[in-house]
Task: inverse folding
């Protein structure tokens, strides 16, 4: 292929940086793509204020805490759990902890510094691995274009989520193994690689699957280095030399053993040092979780481990596997190019791949199979499968390696056929991720959300009742001005009204979102009659604002006069 005169890969990375900064500019004030971003923001703000404890301690008077403890706390499982009379969010404490300093320096925009820079580092690491394996500039440029503009990864660069940070840590650890593991794997490389992969678990629990895979492969690699597989190879080699009757069969067995050796020997030296670094890093995280949550897996254990049923877990795993696989293929269609080329390579000698490609494929397949066992859901609101984001740079490297191999085949117009298929799938991925992704992730609902946020900032009422916990998560910035209560049923509204009347409150705000049944079929009637031992009360609700996403009502607490 023709060499480009300019450094196209670096120009593409620069264009990606500009695009990701554009995405950052599209963030509508302090409103997050996903509601759980609001929970993490609350904890990060708490830490940035100097309160270095990891339970969510929302400032409120004692009477408010009593109502919360009586069932009206603004958040509930699976996003929040009460442990030893303290409320914890279900997400690891680590991401709010590392983003808290940036919030203190830059305000809410600081929350996006780590996700943004982590994404950029993934791009540069991908560029480096392409350089190591001597892919030319054009193929590398195509790979970067696909990674940045035709995959779901970039959409996460300007979201307050820890996924890009975890991918950055794990991918860089794997990159060291894949480029240095076969040779020149120094003590520094082994320690650094093990720590990076281990740290990914600190931020995302699904990376425990990657840790398990790597540990098994490295243990096998260690067995190979001390002669376990060498004995098999020597036996096959001796049989190949001595056998007369079935020379072809024995030689095939020898080649098969050699293939397996290349496939599973991911690093050839310093395996013990690597394993020690990796395992100790993960164990330190477990120890901190035990201290904070009284469980080594943290609050995540309440979603996956508690009330564990093997049968139920396996059934969910099968369901999650299908959903994750389908999302991966839908949002990253370039995989459809790699699959047939990999299959064809099994039958054609002119399409051969390095051991690294086969190792990446093995790791990716095992990761896809193991992750569904560890996750509590299919991911909820997301762009593509966020639990499989680490597979995007890995499978993308396989895809452009396939393009590189097929381009070199001149027979039957193979290079033009393969290039045409690749370009077609790239265009599909570009339209879905860059165009539709920008609209759906950063612009959809923007006006409606900002309207509600502006109303809450200006409204004089201090009490906000919400029909769904996602409302509180979405408008967490208002928590410093108002007090939120979760009122899912009419009885909850009644309970809140009685408590507020005792505190001399006459009015409060009630918010119903479009994703709750109350939006179209109100479960909260216009009027609620309450009675106590001494007073009869009425809560009168009047709609004051409604847009495509929210209905806001003002509730007035009226004391009815007793008849003589």
Result:
């Amino acid at each position: 292929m023709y060499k480009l005169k300019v450094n196209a890969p670096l120009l593409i990375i620069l264009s990606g940086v500009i695009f990701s900064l554009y995405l950052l500019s599209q963030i509508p004030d302090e409103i997050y793509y996903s509601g759980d971003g609001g929970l993490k923001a609350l904890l990060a703000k708490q830490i940035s204020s100097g309160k270095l404890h990891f339970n969510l301690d929302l400032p409120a008077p004692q009477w408010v805490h009593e109502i919360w403890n009586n069932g009206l706390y603004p958040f509930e499982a699976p996003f929040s759990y009460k442990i030893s009379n303290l409320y914890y969010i279900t997400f690891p404490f680590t991401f709010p902890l590392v983003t808290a300093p940036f919030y203190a320096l830059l305000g809410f925009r600081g929350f996006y510094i780590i996700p943004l820079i982590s994404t950029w580092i993934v791009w540069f690491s991908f560029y480096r691995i392409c350089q190591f394996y001597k892919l030319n500039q054009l193929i590398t440029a195509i790979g970067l274009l696909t990674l940045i503009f035709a995959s779901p990864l970039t959409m996460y660069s300007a979201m307050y989520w820890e996924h890009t940070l975890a991918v950055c840590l794990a991918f860089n650890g794997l990159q060291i193994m894949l480029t240095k593991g076969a040779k020149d794997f120094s003590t520094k490389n082994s320690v650094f690689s093990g720590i990076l992969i281990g740290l990914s678990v600190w931020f995302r629990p699904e990376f425990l699957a990657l840790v398990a895979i790597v540990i098994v492969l490295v243990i096998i690699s260690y067995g190979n280095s001390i002669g376990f597989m060498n004995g098999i190879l020597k036996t096959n080699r001796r049989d190949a030399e001595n056998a007369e009757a079935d020379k072809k069969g024995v030689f095939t067995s020898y080649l098969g053993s050699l293939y397996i050796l290349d496939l599973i020997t991911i690093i050839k030296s310093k395996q013990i040092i690597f394993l020690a670094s990796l395992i100790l890093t993960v164990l330190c995280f477990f120890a901190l979780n035990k201290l904070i949550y009284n469980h080594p897996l943290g609050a995540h254990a309440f979603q996956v481990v508690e009330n564990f049923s093997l049968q139920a877990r396996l059934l969910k795993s099968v369901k999650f596997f299908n959903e994750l696989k389908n999302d991966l293929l839908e949002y990253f269609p370039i995989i459809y190019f790699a699959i047939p080329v990999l299959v064809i390579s099994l039958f054609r000698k002119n399409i051969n791949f390095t051991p690294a490609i086969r190792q990446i494929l093995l790791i990716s397949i095992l990761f896809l199979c193991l992750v569904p066992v560890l996750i509590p859901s299919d991911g909820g609101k997301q762009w593509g499968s966020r639990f499989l984001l680490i597979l995007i740079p890995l499978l993308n490297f396989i895809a452009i390696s396939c393009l590189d191999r097929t381009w070199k085949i001149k027979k039957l117009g193979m290079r033009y056929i393969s290039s045409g298929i690749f370009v077609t799938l790239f265009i599909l991925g570009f339209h879905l991720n860059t165009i539709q992704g920008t609209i759906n992730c950063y612009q959809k609902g923007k006006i409606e959300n900002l309207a509600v946020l502006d109303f809450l900032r200006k409204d004089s009422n201090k009490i906000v009742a919400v029909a769904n916990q996602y409302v509180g998560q979405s408008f967490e910035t208002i928590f410093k001005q108002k007090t939120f209560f979760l009122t899912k049923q009419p009885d909850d509204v009644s309970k809140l009204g009685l408590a507020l009347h005792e505190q001399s409150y006459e009015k409060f705000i009630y918010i119903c979102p479009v994703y709750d049944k109350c939006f179209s079929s109100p479960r909260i009637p216009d009027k609620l009659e309450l009675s106590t031992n001494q007073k009869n009360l009425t809560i009168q609700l009047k709609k004051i604002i409604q847009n495509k996403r929210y209905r806001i009502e003002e509730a007035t607490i009226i004391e009815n006069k007793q008849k003589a």
Notes: Strands lie at 80-83, 86-89, 463-466, 483-486, 507-513, 527-531, 536-546, 550-560. Residues 414-443 form the longest helix (30 residues).
